[in-house]
Amino acid sequence: MHASVTLLYFAWLREKIGVGQEQYALPDGVRSVAGLVGALRQRGPAFAAAFESKGVIRAAVNQVFAKPDDAVAPGDEIAFFPPVTGG
């Protein structure tokens, strides 16, 4: 049995994917934010569209901003959100 992570999707990502939060079983070999994004893109058209532009989506692991090569592990909470703009 694969261990899972909690995934959170915000703003237009939530709208494209259709859920705001889910439990997701980490596929074998997925150990980084970039690896997780790659696995999510394979889940279907909605996920492929949401994650199509690399570098646009920001991620946080356990409420700390994360880079693509940062580690993910079972039990983590990973949030995905678009860049925040403001003035």
Please explain how this structure is put together.
The protein has 87 residues and is α+β, with helices and mostly antiparallel strands. The protein has a single domain, classed as Ubiquitin-like (UB roll) (Roll), CATH 3.10.20.30. It is built from 3 helices and 5 strands. The protein has helices at residues 12-17, 33-41, 45-50; strands at 4-9, 21-25, 58-61, 64-66, 77-81. Strands 2-1-5-3-4 form a 5-stranded mixed beta sheet. The relative contact order is 0.28. The mean pLDDT is 91.
Structure at a glance:
With 87 residues, this protein is α+β, with helices and mostly antiparallel strands. It contains 3 helices and 5 strands. Strands 2-1-5-3-4 form a 5-stranded mixed sheet.
Spell out the blueprint of helices and strands:
Layout: E1 4-9, H1 12-17, E2 21-25, H2 33-41, H3 45-50, E3 58-61, E4 64-66, E5 77-81
Parallel strand pairs: 1-5
Antiparallel strand pairs: 1-2, 3-4, 3-5
